[in-house]
Amino acid sequence: MLRRLTKPISLVLVSPQIPPNTGNIARLCAVTGCQLILIGPLGFSIDDRHLRRAGLDYWDKVLLKYYSAFSDYLEAWSLSRRWLFSAKAQKSCFSVDYAPGDHLLFGSETCGLSQEVYERAQGTALTIPMLEGTRSLNLSTAVGIAAYEAIRQLQFSIN
Fold it and tell me: Hey, how many other C-beta atoms are within 10 angstroms of the C-beta on 129?
């Protein structure tokens, strides 16, 4: 059983484009206690039926914040430690120590994180290891892997 963290992990989606991915990530947030931060522009409306369907009846349990621009997010969360996820990064997401309140940033399904995010976020780039010759994971799958690694470190000890 998970316990709610006093300072939850934040799963930050920068310009997500596919409603079911965001809905699945919202459901992940509801069951793990992670906060969901959406940064626009979004490729859909928050009221999109596909987004709602993927999250089903969990939306009332999601700690949700929305910012229309990356600069607004940075202003609101200037002191947060950020991990920037990219298939192009070299450092494994399994090789770092996560802390309560960390922000895990993910880019859009089509473009990943922009150069602006890398330059302004002041975070560490991480990757989820994959076999050579493969390109990327589905966004909601990648977010799930990263979120549960952070949760594993913060809530469970391996003996």
Answer: 9
Question: Which token pair is 24?
Answer: 């699945």
Which among 149, 89, 99, 152 is positioned nearest to 124, based on CA atoms?
89
Mean pLDDT comparison of 57-66, 89-98, 148-157, highest-scoring range:
89-98
C-alpha–C-alpha distance, residues 135 and 31, integer Å: 29
pLDDT bracket for residue 127 (50, 70, 90): very high
Contacts of 156 (CB under 8 A, 6+ apart): none
Token output for 66: 């929305």
Helix (H), strand (E), coil (C) string for 88-129: CCCCECCCCCCCCCCEEEECECCCECCHHHHHHHCCEEEECC
Separation of alpha carbons 68 and 83, rounded Å: 20
Decide: pTM greater than 0.90.
Answer: yes
Pairing of strands 82-85, 124-126: parallel
CA distances from residue 149 to 9, 17, 94 in whole angstroms, order as listed: 11, 25, 7
Q: Which residue, chain included where needed, has tokens 């607004």?
A: 72
Q: What are the strands of the beta sheet with 63-67, ordered from one edge?
A: 63-67, 35-39, 10-14, 103-106, 82-85, 124-126
Using an 8 Å Cβ cutoff, are 42 and 67 in contact? no
